[in-house]
Amino acid sequence: MIDLTKNEAVLEKNIQKARENKVIVPTFAQMKNPDLIPEKIKEKLKDVGLWDVNPLNLFRVSWKNEQKESGGLYGNSNYIVLPSELTGVKAKIICMIGKWFPTGCHKVGASFGCLVPRLVTGQFDATSDKAVWPSTGNFCRGGAFNSKLLSCDSIAILPQEMSRERFEWLSNIAGEVIATPGCESNVKEIFDKTWELRTTRDDVMIFNQFEEMGNYLWHYTVTGSAIADAFEEMKEDGDRFAGAVFTSGSAGTMASGDYLKEKYPTAKLGVGEALQCPTLLNNGFGGHRIEGIGDKHVPWIHNVKNTDMVIDIDDEDSQRILRFFNEPKGREYLKSQGVAPELVDKLGYFGISGIANMLCAIKMAKYYEMTEHDVIATVMTDSASMYGSRIQELVDETGEYTDVMAAVDFNKHILCQKTDNMQELTYQDRKRIHNLKYYTWVEQQGRTVEELDALWYDVEHTWDAVKKQAADIDELINDFNERTGLLKEL
Q1: Distance CA 98, CA 82 (A)
Q2: Whose C-alpha in 79, 188, 327, 426 is 20 to 30 A from the C-alpha of 333?
Q3: What is the distance between the alpha carbons of residues 429 and 307, in angstroms, rounded to a whole number?
Q4: Are residues 23 and 484 in contact, defined by beta-carbon separation less than 8 angstroms?
């Protein structure tokens, strides 16, 4: 469970700092349902840009933001539905849009779920502690942004081979930026750096997304309900919610799958990873280019026992489709194949991991032979705007994009996806993956065997207990806001 023990002396300091910096904290309930946000806050948001470093943007940590760069309020869940003309499968694929979060990525929500419980209990001291955000890219961006909005200092940690856009943005937001050796799959090196900071500095608190149950809780509560709302809005007569699939990363988004399986009990839940680093599929390892996910370990917060399928995606597919989706000739080709122009215009909503998620959904639909009445959900974590340098690298590598290249990319990398490199999990298969947590979390990160076993055998006091904590955290947030007095001053 998430520790909600109060430190009243530190909490009072946090309240004073929030008061000085005009920080009002939204609740999980408000992020899930923005109708609950006070009208006076909505009125003030009309003058605030989506990426502005303004505490009011904490109230835009939601899947339901209006699709505007500045001044937007709220509406329904942000999503697009991919038709068979694009995917080659009969099933409809819901893709939740991460672009309309502050920072352009839903990780701003996951990091909120980690930091805020410790802030409103006084476990984190906003006057002296630095929030450390170890990440393979987007989580440290979200963490640094939330820290800035909450008037906290931050340290961002990410692999040195991540896109240039990430480092440039972080240099203006985070207090410190640390680049660790390697690429997307070099998570161990990130963990090593956090241990170094933990043992050499007394002014840091580590928010490790791979083990923070606040990450799990935010996605279970907010992302899960947003996907369900999207399905209920788009479904037609006879449609059923057939499944959800998400590339692993920290496995936070997988928690939304736990919510969806409770609401739609016949749904399947799949987890994706890069074929070049097949950790879940066959205990493999290696480097890959699907930015936005991390491998060579099983995240502590992955509820493996509730996962039905592992799906591996070739990173070459995601790279080629990134360029295909963002080249004029690629978009024109899709229109010639019957894909609606209004959908083609939205393909920039796909970042690299979002493309991998789409491919996972296509493979799941083929494996289960899903029909036109089946609906699969996934997320577009961020957008192509975070990968301009990667697209340029592909241009430098393969030259000018042609009509022939567009035809090849569409047919080879989307329509010809097969049901290879995937596995439907038995009980023993799930247990094998769960057992891999031992090597990272017990041997390296200080967890105990008893804690590991509890995640498998004692669901009531682990996963189920965490799911119920959103209401308790909201109560603490409401008390925090009451004590700052800022809501009364609006």
Answers
A1: 16
A2: 79
A3: 10
A4: yes
